[in-house]
Task: structure prediction
Amino acid sequence: MPYSFASGTRKDVLALMIRSRVFEQKIEELFTNHSMHGTTHLAIGQEAVHAGVALGLEQRDWIMTTHRCHGHTLARGADLFAMMAEFFGDSRGLSRGLGGSMHLIDMEHRNAGSSAVVGSSVALATGMALQLKRQNRDEIVVAFFGDGASNRGIIHEAMNMASIWNLPVLFLCEHNGYGMSSPAHRMVSVSSIAERGSGYGIKSDSIDGNAVQEVYSKVREIRQWMMEHQRPYLLEVKTYRFSGHSKSDKRVYRSREEEAQWMKKDPIEAFSRVLIAEKEITEQEISDLFEQERAQITEIADFFLNDHQELTLRDAEQYVYASGGDR
Amino acid sequence: MRQISYREAIREALAEEMARDEQVVLMGEDVGCYGGCFSVTSGLIDIYGPHQVIETPVSEEGIVAVAVGAAIMGMRPVVEVMYGDFSTLASDPLINHAAKTRFMSGGRQSVPMVYRTPMGSGTGAAAQHTQSLETLFTNIPGLKVIYPCTPSDAKGLLKSAIRCDDPVVFLEHKNYGLSSLIPEEDYTIEIGKADVKRKGTDLTIITYGKMVSQALSAALTLEDDEISAEVVDLRTLRPLDTEAIRASVKKTGRAVILHEGPAFGGFSGEIAAAIVEDEDTFRALKGPVKRIGGQEIPTPFNKNLEMQMAPQVSQIISVSLSLFS
Result:
């Protein structure tokens, strides 16, 4: 691999993946026991993508993510307090409790948010890249989407425009095998979505999305290539969501055997094995990391379970138009 | 003052705003050397270049979505979609994204963009290029909707729309050759303010867009029957200037509401509600509130049939007279 994590930082990478996992597990628990309302889309099992992409980018780069956005938001550096607040609809949340789980927006960390209209955010990200190019900024935008979204017409329009205008957008397909209940092998016309890049003259590749070092290296490599060639890129990362599509999903569309096969490729366990083998960390230290992250996130969740603040409808109206009350 | 056309007025607004602020970017199909489907943008690419005039592929949803994303990053895009009917394609980025971005980010993002598109019949382009679809947008909090009739209003309102930090749907009629006097100096017109195009005492005709011209013609003829009709041009549909509507109807006691699209489910219902929901205005009424809309069928291609689609001046006159019988 052309790029590897700087020496001594791999433990932090593992910690970031664990934080993502533990955060999602806490969210799942809070939804299951009805402490939170609405719905949520977990990405347990996709942590190598969250960490690998976020660390592979420069801080000045941008992301626009999907309805399955917790891990990406966390990995970009969002304040966990403000993230958790948003899930509770608390006014101290990233979007003051007006966006919720599917719309985590964190401009401070250059996360421009997500659309819950599956696939639509890809074109918005393309527009962000158009403005970056007009301003000759040395920044790229990552447009996340899934295998389900890959069938939206808007992604065809966006990829075509990114190609004809040479926009700095990295189309990043998180291929987790299912669009809700529908398996990609029945819904997507190609076995690898990377193949679709050639239809737009966009260079593409497909990699193992459960190998964090590979994702990181590939993203750094692509970023370098995009800067040199002033071209968009399509990267497919193959992964699997261990969790269901959303909180109500009983996972009737796939077998427990299939899930067990993928569990063997758990990205956190895979990276842990590497670090243990190379004596960068011990099993005890990993288990301590889980405990530390759990303790931190539980403390934040407990805070919001006991201390709720929210906007009034009159307050919320101030955010419809720039002039506040103008209707 | 000088005489210019609706087309030239819109072009001047675009040119002046592009000169004032390089973040103002015109985007759309054929808006470059071709000058746009209705020649509104002719010559702009020669002055402002591809940095501010971006010719796009045939991708209405994509163009508008790209504009939304660029606007989040500080661009002030003005998107031209060549026929208002294609707003169905642009509705996802406008309704689900542009209108909600500020809100869903708790005020941390804004979408300062303008969506320009022409509406209405009379061009022989049949059912998919002649609709009046303003009500797709008037029911969406987060959007502003403007539909001016005169060159002067079009210029002043488009400049305000471009300077507005909210997404604005700017609808145009296709009588681009309509000309009138406009001020020499730089000016803007406030969004959300109606304009009394003709003063009167006996009847109020409330309308917008192309139908303002029809209303003025009808008002002129009504003079023969010694009826003094006031014509209120809404100019902006959202936010609606309910004060101006009520002030006029309280004065005249009679209201005829007019628009080109079908009345059933049309914006005229909202205007009627603005009249009858207000106690004082309701009490001032001397008769029922009347609505006149276009025919309740898709636009026929046949020329004679198409010409009967939009409300006719004779119809406005007869409905107005009925309030005096």
The two ends of chain B are 42 Å apart (CA to CA). The CA atoms of residues 155 and 284 of chain B lie 35 Å apart.
